[in-house]
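Weekly structure sync - notes
Attendees: PM, LS, DV (DV joined late)
Agenda: review two folding runs queued last week.

Item 1: First target. Sequence and structure tokens pasted below for the record.
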Amino acid sequence: MTATCRVVVLTYNCEGIIDETLAMARRIDPRPLVVDSYSSDATLRQVGSEAEVVRRAFSNYADQRNWAIAHLQAGDERPVSPDWQLHLDADEVLDEAAVAAIQHVLQSGDAAPHRAYLLRRIDYFMGRRLR
């Protein structure tokens, strides 16, 4: 049986990148959870209705991520918790290799070889890859 994965994206004033981030994230989860820290730009208009959006004040990353984990596991509103969660910042765009690897793990279901995974990052600054 294919495993389920919910994608969580933390946002705050990220209108310049959120479309790209969500386009790739939707290949893993058709309706990602966007936890927005009261953006004042066009971020939420760009997110649109193809995501579950919750606005929540930002204290720190740990608090925001822990809240999202608990929110996804809340039994009253969600009868089934996802098998996996993928947490992204608004400027973390999955590439084709990452999407394929994640889809492979999800298709493996209970036979997935690991219980957690770390995605290797590639950082860019001013349009150039950092090494």
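Item 2: Second target, run right after the first with the same settings.
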Amino acid sequence: MNKFRSIPALGAFFVLAVVLSACGSGVPGNSIAVVAGNPISAPAFNHWMYVAAKGQSASSPGQPVIVPNDPPNFTSCIAEARKEIPSLAKTPAKTLKSDCKTLFTSLSSQVLDFLIKAYWYQADAHKLGINVTDAQVQKAFTSAKKQQFSTAAQFDAYLKSTGYTLADIIFRFRFSQVLEKLIAKHTTTVTSAQIAAYYSSHQSQFGTPESRDLRIVLAKTQAQAEAAKTALQHGSSWQVVAKKYSTDPTTKNTGGVLTNVTEGQQDAALNQAAFSASPNQLLGPVKGQFGYYVLEVTRIKPATLKTLAQSSATIKQTLTQQQQSAAQTAVDAHAKKDWFKQTTCRSLYAMADCSGYKAPKTSTSSATPTP
């Protein structure tokens, strides 16, 4: 995985600060939120919004970067949209304001979620005595940079194209290592017994069921089915007989062929007859839900099952991923328990991580993005 592409920006100031008056919610004037006394400044938030908007525009080459960072009126966003997208020059301000608000809601909730959790995780790490040194961070960064960028010019071009600063990326490596150590507190080694238990209860994942190839004629009446069977016994081809007698639209014009049929896929009566029959045995009429079947099994493909030894590596990977997911959930729950009540956000920016937040009745909360 590209360790750089998945890095949200942290810390640096790119967009000029939005000067906010200190009104309501107990958040200082030039801040968006406060976590246990630590402010998330407007300049830092706006920089992140710029990087998020730049990342979103990257998915549509040629799309301008518009940062909706001036709620609730979005005057600057509207002006920027009209400037960067000529076709919007005459679009009503009300329409553009609605678009800016939608973009703001999408980007700001992601940005603020990550900024808040950055505080939460590091605060919990400090309480648990987890320490990540500058040397460890620099080593991880240098190794990743060497693997992904052949020259300094390539790295500089990457920073320019994404809006990240070197400080952002260094911080993100520190944050990643802190999170890894927090997750490690909740994970254990996958044991052989766990692997065996998973294999025993999920064997369908490690093989294929028996399948059969059939030829069928589905007739409306028993008499027609008897006539079809008699014709086949006297040498008529399945192609001719199916076309004359069958009412099944899937197989009528293909000689009655059904391939790779597994147990339980077909009409119960057909299923029972097909999976109890020997190959090349003409059977019927069999009364089913939709009429009368004449059938013949032309091939049996036995079930397959990988051994426990063959499946162990895959199972271990699955269980490890499950543990990692559960550990991440535990880390989030622990951090929220410790710091949620101490996280206050300015009302215009409030989202699920902010104490006192109430989700709009017409929308549902999105899943927390993984940093």
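Discussion on item 2: The radius of gyration is 32 Å.
Action: LS to circulate a short write-up before next sync.
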